[in-house]
Design the sequence.
């Protein structure tokens, strides 16, 4: 059983298109995240949701819109794709939310979704 | 603001030797957690080890140990008896009441 699953794993699309990446976790965690990993491998937090509520929204263009229909799902929709959006997008989940430091604190990552914008 | 620094973009190690990957952090909070993740060429993120700021003992997990020096704000990862399968990117990360903040990573190459 995959703990955090993302679809699609690979996505190739033209500039200007709109695309979505889906994420589901079956761990019963309250908090989910989207990270972006650029071509230099730098991982940067984009969004964090706790129990369907947005709690972290880093400086991300408003073309990116996360949606959490329930606490097990966090989807990422991207409008008007640009070349610079090409990256690997990782979904992750954890048991804790901001303000609480767990004694394990592990993030469980999905396998990543590689987005290529042509 | 919290900050994680990994100063070694790339490292080489001979198979069966030990290697230390450096990580320093900056925070004014007293309560925080430090993590190491491995990212092989296949791309997935694999949790390796965790150290809490109040933990008195250095964390160990199999061949991985974390050399935690709180006064120096360092959390170096030590891999003993390196194996070819250890070749990967390694990320240090910190948790301080926010989602994990990652360093830029160190690419480790294990040579036969």
Sequence:
């Amino acid at each position: 059983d995959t703990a955090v699953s993302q679809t699609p794993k690979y996505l190739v699309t033209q500039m200007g298109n709109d695309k979505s990446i889906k994420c589901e976790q079956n761990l019963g965690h309250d908090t989910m995240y989207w990270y972006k990993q650029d071509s230099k491998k730098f991982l940067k937090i984009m969004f964090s949701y706790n129990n369907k509520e947005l709690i972290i929204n880093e400086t991300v263009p408003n073309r990116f819109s996360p949606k959490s229909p329930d606490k097990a799902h966090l989807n990422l929709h991207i409008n008007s794709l640009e070349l610079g959006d090409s990256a690997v997008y990782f979904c992750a989940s954890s048991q804790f939310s901001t303000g609480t430091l767990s004694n394990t604190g592990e993030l469980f990552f999905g396998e990543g979704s590689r987005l290529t914008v042509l | 603001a919290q900050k994680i620094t990994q100063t070694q973009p790339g490292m080489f190690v001979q198979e069966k030797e030990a290697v230390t990957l450096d990580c320093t952090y900056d925070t004014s909070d007293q309560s925080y957690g430090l993590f190491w993740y491995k990212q092989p060429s296949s791309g997935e993120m694999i949790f390796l080890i965790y150290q809490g700021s109040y933990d008195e003992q250095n964390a160990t997990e199999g061949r991985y140990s974390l050399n935690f020096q709180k006064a120096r704000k360092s959390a170096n990862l030590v891999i003993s008896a390196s194996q070819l399968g250890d070749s990967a990117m390694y990320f240090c990360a910190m948790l301080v009441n926010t989602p994990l903040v990652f360093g830029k990573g160190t690419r480790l190459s294990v040579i036969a």
User: Anything to note?
Assistant: The interface with chain A takes residues 31-33, 35, 39, 43-45, 47, 50, 52, 89, 91, 95-102, 104-105 of chain B (CB under 8 Å). The mean pLDDT of chain B is 93. The longest strand of chain B covers residues 88-95.
